[in-house]
Fold this protein.
Amino acid sequence: NISQLDLKKITSLGLVIVGDRDIVKTEHTNLIVGAIANCQLKILEDASHYVPQEKSEIFNKVVLDFLVD
């Protein structure tokens, strides 16, 4: 329930991680990523909304790589 105007106010780097079987609709994910100027999207295969639990090793690597860059 965050408005696009509020998302556009975010100026820090962002990372959105979703599963390819996520309950959040693809169009909503794209709206979020598109509204944040410095945002990256990572879609993990064979995962639902519970990516951190289902794909913890890959999730942790993606986050650490993002933080190091």
Summary: The CA atoms of residues 28 and 34 lie 10 Å apart.
